[in-house]
């Protein structure tokens, strides 16, 4: 009888151990899995988007900087890069120009050192210039005026612009040009030339693949059609006319 009671007790404990986790899993939760917000108050929905009045006032009021904060540098105080370049065009009638321009004007033939895209070219009337690049936005027959020159001369006289200033840590490079009203230089676009097609083979070390690179450069050809040095009277008349227009 005692053995039967002991076995019945063990059977009851085993059944209790099996049923107990099931009862624990059926616990009541307070988390709502319903996505319907029709019964939720509006302030509770917008609680995460609400901003206090103090925060709104702080955002609208400009904040003053501390006294120890350094003032930002002005554009004039910023140092230019040594690689920067500035073109300066002289527009003053100096005593030397007033004295020597008539002598230069009377010479029979003139030459000019014109600058195109920052490169100097020594030219005279009738010369054919082949640029080392293809000039954009031009077509054969177009007339170009070359208005950047550092030298205008003849057999006996030469009018030179000031020497360029090299760039350093304090300022960039400065290039001086003659006044474009002192001369007239025009060039006609003759056409565009191209070199033969070149094929270059490029290989990498320890690789069997060979890459073929094709290149065919194009060059713009110009012909200097007009080169004239203005007289002193013409130059003074242009300066006087522009002075009157600026006053009006």
Gist?
This protein has 248 residues and is of the alpha+beta class. The chain contains 5 helices and 12 strands. It has a domain at 85-203 and 213-233.
What does this structure look like?
The chain has 248 residues and is α+β, with helices and mostly antiparallel strands. The chain has a domain at 85-203 and 213-233. Helix content is 25%, strand content 29%. It is built from five helices and twelve strands. The chain has helices at residues 2-25, 42-45, 53-60, 95-105, 232-247; strands at 85-89, 111-116, 119-124, 128-130, 143-145, 149-153, 158-160, 173-177, 183-194, 198-203, 210-215, 218-229. The strands form four sheets. It has a four-stranded antiparallel beta sheet with strand order 3-2-6-7, with helices on one face. Strands 4-12-9-5 form a four-stranded antiparallel beta sheet, with no helix packed on it. The protein is extended, with a radius of gyration of 43 Å. It starts with a helix and ends with a helix. The model has no long low-confidence stretch (mean pLDDT 81).
